[in-house]
Amino acid sequence: QVQLVESGGGLVQAGGSLRLSCAASGRTFSSYAMGWFRQAPGKEREFVATISWRSDNTDYADSVKGRFTISRDNAKNTVYLQMNALKPEDTAVYYCAADSTRWGTRKAPEYDYWGQGTQVTVSS
User: Fold this and answer.
1) Each residue of 86-106: pLDDT tens digit?
2) What contacts 24+ positions apart, CB below 8 Å, involve 44-53?
């Protein structure tokens, strides 16, 4: 069992930055790939980024590539999402998720555990 708690969301102006954190409970965090997803009002949840269990594989949605960076610290049981050059279209609830396959995937149904989400609002 893995419990995930996101933090770091908030209100920021376009062009600004935020860093999201996702703290995981449980001693098996390091064996999971981790992902970030987001859901805007009236839209489906969409993939943002993923990182493998040993940080040797990362993948990003085209819409955030070059602006967002996913990383993890297994000693702290935490995964991060550094978001730079934010745009109003990045406004959404951001969720972290854990995937027991270790490599990471863009497919939300393949994730085993989800956090409650943190709101990110980017004003124009």
Assistant:
1) 999 999 999 999 999 889 999
2) 45/95, 45/108, 47/106, 47/107, 47/108, 48/81, 48/94, 49/81, 50/99, 50/104, 50/105, 50/106, 51/79, 51/104, 52/102, 52/103, 52/104, 53/102, 53/103
